[in-house]
Every structure is written in structure tokens, then in C-alpha cells.
Amino acid sequence: MPNSILAFLVTIAVLIVVHEWGHYRVARACGIKVLRFSVGFGRPIWRRQRGETEWVIGALPFGGYVKMLDEREAPVPPQELHRAFNRKSLWQRSAVVAAGPLANLLLAVLLYAASFWIGTQEPRALLGTPLASSVAERAGVQAGDWVRAARTGEPGEAMPADWTPVASLTDLRWQVTRAALNGQDMELEVSGPSGGGRRVLRLPLAELQAGDADAKLVRRIGLGAAYAEPLLGEIVAGGPAERAGLRRGDVVLRVDGRTVADAAALRALIRSAVNGQQVAAQQWELRRGAELLTLVVQPVRVEERGEVFGRIQAAVGGPPQMDEVRYGVADGLLRGWERTVEVAGLTLKMFGRMLIGEASLRNISGPLTIADFAGQSVELGLAYYLGFLAVVSVSLGVLNLLPLPMLDGGHLLYHLIEGLTRKPIPEVWLERLQRGGLAVILMMMTLALYNDVARLLGQH
To answer: What is the spatial distance between Cα 362 and Cα 454, in angstroms, rounded to a whole number?
Structure first.
């Protein structure tokens, strides 16, 4: 918990500072006088005057602001009227407003690039047994398939000629999820574990009509976990596995005459040993070193959360094969740009789907979820934390560009209307829109906090 809180505070601080720094730098470039640069709201817990700008840290760390000279907020001396925000041209005011969200998006590009430069240890895109009745199973995915490249296209149309290399299982899951949410089909170029026997599989993802990127969608796609050899790990003393004579390192070949493709298939066979109140004994054929053995294993009946299944009380499955995923300077920057564009586009699409009811409002996350993921990513390493920070930075940039009052996108909408009508929106309407926008923001914050609590309680 302390790590999560610290990581959350660092995350919020970095994103707020960069966002407000974008507003600040462009305002200065346009000759606007900046009175205050504040990170946080409420009572100042630290302040310092540097030149004409007061630098402040507020007690409430959930945002920030840049206060500029403006006749609409306070009287401006005649000699400084040319430095007031409201006296600047429309394009200058628009540039100042847009600079904050754009700074977040630029930060995301650099954070993704830095993550790619540092590199991460990722599971190789070796697929385990696909989930039953899933898209992957129907497409012919087999345990041990190594996905080398992928490409997406519109359903019913020919696929593009170019393939996108698949760097890892994490990369594959991202590409598949993005294609499903975009309503596209996907083709996978796969080989055997040693690289031979290449073939092409088509995943008809568009038929899923995916609206939410949740666990249900992952199960419907059904790619499953990374391939793991069907061997046994730690054996619980006195448990069914030990009583049957199983040992650590045993490689299971067949169960009741059925070939065991990988650890996922072995776990499924163990779980299926229970039929109502009956638990069937199983005949296992296994390899122990150079020796082939046949043993009878009697799983025990276990009931959890209303589900009944078999268990042998032993660790099942070897570790997945890992590869280091790292890119050079140019490739890292390019992939950072591409990933930022992809995540921004997907975020906008999800907002649109939630607005028209095609996606669940459960997708909105708040500070508790951010803190939880921040802490988890820090524990995994710097590259993972930078990638997480990039995702949040993209979300913040896109959110602030939405045409809602109180957000930067709302102010840009005001400027667009001013440009079209050749006159500013009346102050009375601005006040009404601001109050309405504040109500919408408060509702979104309340919903995000509710979703956070529901996830912690296991209700989502």
C-alpha cells in the first residue's frame, strides 16, 4: 500500500506539472503574463515568487492551474493590457488552451519510447491451449503455436499485404484487443515452437461486437495463457499428488489416454475429474528423466465460489519462455508515437461508445484503480512504470480535449464558436455552461470512485 500511494502521488505530480507546463510555456511565448503556476488546489503548503510568477503547491493534489493576467477576472493596469490573455488573438488563446493536453500526449510518446529503450522481459508469443468454444479454438490455434506476425483488416475484405511483427505475448494481446474493439478481423502467422511449419490463422474478431476491454472479452477471444510445459512443480506433503507417487519435475504425457498438450490442458483435465459428488481416479502416463511411468492419481473435490472441480495439490506447469523486448533510439521513438496514437484513438472510441451506451460505464476508473496499478507497475520495474505512466498521460490528454465546459476542450469549443460567429460567447452563457460542466465532471468523478470501490469489493 505505501508503494501504491507513493507511486500514485508521483504519477499525478508528473502529469499535472507537464500539463500545466504546456499552458505556461505557450502563454509566455505569446507574451501573456502568468501570475501563478499551481500544482494542486486549496490552501498552499509551499509557495515561492520567481519573477512575476508565483509558484505554488496546493494541499489537494488532484489537479493544477496556470493563472494568467485577464480582464475578466480582475482589473488590469493600462500599461499591461497588451499582456492580458483576453486581449490576445483567437489563435494565440487557442494555442495556450491546447498546449496542456498536447504536452501530455507528447509526454506519452517520450515515456513509451523510454520504456522501449530500457526494455522488458516479456513472455514469448507461444500460445497455450485455447479456451473451449472461443474464437481462437475455432480458428485452429493449438498449444505450442508461436505467433510471429499479425495483420488486421475489415471483415469480408482482403487483408493488407504488410504484416506487423509480434514481439511478445503482451504485444499480441494488445494487438488482438485493439482489433476486437475496432471491429476488425485479424490474421496470425504462426509456426511451431522451433520456428518451422508456418501457417496463417484468421480470427473473426468482428463477430464479437466487442464493447468493453474486460475479462469477458479476453475469454471470448480465448488465446489463453502463455505456453507452459505440462510438468509438475512443488508437491504438497500428504496431498493427492504425493499419495499417487508424483514427483517434482515429472512431465505428464497423457491422462486417461488423452494427450496432454501443455500445462493449461493438464489443469483442465484435473479440474474435470469431478462429476457432481463423484471424483474419478485418473491414469497418468508421464516421463521422469529417461523413465516412462504410469500412475493412478485420485484428485480431491474442491468447491470455491459455487464451482466444483478437482485438485491434486501440486504446482502444474513450467515457467514460460521469456524474451527481452528492447528497441533502438529511432525504432523506440517510432513505436512510442504509434502506441500513443493507438491508445488515444482507442480511448476516444471508448468514450464515444460509453456515451451512446455501446460500452459499459464500468470502464471509467478513478484514483484508487490508478494507485493500485501504479504500485503494481513499480514493483515490476522502471520500464513497466513508464509504460503505465504513458497510458495515464494519454488518458489525461484525451480527456482534457473533450468538448466539455471546465475542460480545455470546452474552451477550445468556445473559441471555435467565436471564430465562426466573429464574437465571443456572452458571459452569462459562459457561467451557465461552466456550472453545467462542473456538474458533469463531479458526476464522472463520483462514478469513477464508485467503480474503484466496486472493483476492490469484487463486484466488477
So the answer is: 9
